[in-house]
Amino acid sequence: MAFSVLYWVNFCSGTKKLSQKSESAVKSDHVLKFIYDPELSHVEGRVQASMRDRSYHVTLTLGENDTVIDSKCDCVNGQDKCHHKASLLLYGYKNVSKTDVRASWIQHPKSRPPKKTMTMEELFPPPPKLATYR
């Protein structure tokens, strides 16, 4: 999974109002900007205030075990838990797909010999010549 819902669940645990407000904000398209860097485990974005013509800058640092280890928001509750941070986490879960994350490819083991390259003549040998009778 590209972006786990557990970040949002762990962040909102114990506060039903926080989860409801964040769900409402995502449903109302209040997340204006979302940037996710999986290599740095960093999320950044802008979330519109509920009833005002204003938006807040939010940054989150994701840790192991699906937790948020550091977070900041420009709102009044920005140092504590706020629904702007929770909205960004929920938005990430709903909108970040596997194709948004950098892919890594499995290399063939070195012990396996490379496949033999064949020429066109080997793939398509000329038809045998037919004898001509006079």
TrEMBL record:
Ranges where the record places region Disordered: 108-134
Compositional bias (Pro residues): 124-134
Superkingdom classification of source: Eukaryota
Protein name, entry field: SWIM-type domain-containing protein
Organism: Pinctada imbricata
